[in-house]
Amino acid sequence: MKLSNKEIKEIAENLDCGMVCYINLRTNEIKSIIDPDDLYSEEEHWKEDLEEIEANWERYLKIDKMPSRDAFQIMEDFTDQVSNKAIRNRLIYALNRNKPFRNFKYEVDYNEEVRQEWFKFKAYKYEEWVKNYLENLDLENQEKID
Predict the structure, then answer these.
(1) Where are the domains of the chain?
(2) CA within 20 to 30 Å of 25's CA: 7, 43, 113, 116, which one?
(3) Each residue of 110-140: pLDDT tens digit?
């Protein structure tokens, strides 16, 4: 499956916001909806898209949210590349405590420069994750054909 960088970026941004993405395999149209399994989802906002997807499910590829282990790895990778030793140590401490996602966010939000660097880093890593996901899917499908 070939998607443009713009389409990959759109998927990555929506996944980062907690959405689930569906790609129409014929047109590459992307439909992003709130995860229907989310306690706070209100299906009426997504009803039309959900009905289209359910009626034509064989035409769509579903991309779920990034697994938490992968999201955690991104936080660790970011921490490893922080040059300021004091900030890096605070981030390491946050990741090793209970509720590492919340603690990491708190530490990142503490410093605006670090916060902006985190957003850039995370966006890049999410896009890479989407590319890898699609490449692995293509490899799996190719193996089934061969």
Answers:
(1) 5-65, 68-144
(2) 43
(3) 999 999 999 999 999 999 999 999 998 865 5
